[in-house]
Amino acid sequence: MKDLVRLTDVTKVYRGGITGALNGVSLTVESGEFTAIMGPSGSGKSTLLNLVAGLDEPSSGSVAVCGTDLGSLGEARLARFRRDHIGFVFQFFHLLPNLTALENVLIPAQLRGNGSTARAAELLERLGIEEVADRYPSRLSGGEQQRVAIARALVNRPTLLLADEPTGALDTRSGEQVMDLLGRLHRDGQTILLVTHDARLAARHAARVISVMDGEVVDDSRRQVA
């Protein structure tokens, strides 16, 4: 395996000089890993994920993804890099209400200049929701909306899939289904970096769990997942 993500002495200080978001964090994530980031509210776990996604930038230190220092990219190149290499799944889905499920999945592909519906339809079928392709988000359950959001994140075949509390807005059964789906994607070779507050789900699915407290990594453990 090779390092897909590398953070080197990363600190994030927010406006007003408030520290604690991240304080000198260094870590790597290897290609093919399913890694969970855990910690209490305000610990810095979502900040870490946003830095890896290039949605935020460190106050000091460096973040590299796929061997590219994100700080070396201008805004336009960074947007292209995210589009080509990173898929992002959010807690609250962020589906466009005036587009069908299939049309929502197609958005990243269209931005890349590939408007073919074949890949989007294939993903909906793979995720077990092909029957909702022509439905609008208002007609979908929370679990169905999150599956559509995952399909959208995968449509450009990202090297890295980032998921920020993907079960946080779901009931227990739907959350477990989404996590089972992420586990299946990982077994198929997808590298996943997940932020979650649910220790049970993290322990069940992620072979590596990084614990963050007050902006620092306090534990980094690997285990065998059945």
Q: What this model shows, in words?
A:
The structure is a single chain. The chain has 226 residues and is of the alpha/beta class. It has one domain (3-222): P-loop containing nucleotide triphosphate hydrolases (Rossmann fold, 3-Layer(aba) Sandwich), CATH 3.40.50.300. Helix content is 34%, strand content 29%. The protein is built from seven helices and ten strands. The chain has helices at 45-53, 75-85, 101-111, 118-126, 142-154, 172-187, 199-205, and strands at residues 3-14, 18-30, 34-38, 60-65, 68-69, 86-89, 160-164, 191-195, 208-213, 216-222. A six-stranded mixed beta sheet has the order 6-7-8-3-9-10, sandwiched between helices. A hairpin with a 2-residue loop joins strand 4 (60-65) and strand 5 (68-69). Helix 3 (101-111) packs across helix 4 and helix 3 (101-111) runs parallel beside helix 5 (142-154). The radius of gyration is 17 Å and the shape is globular.
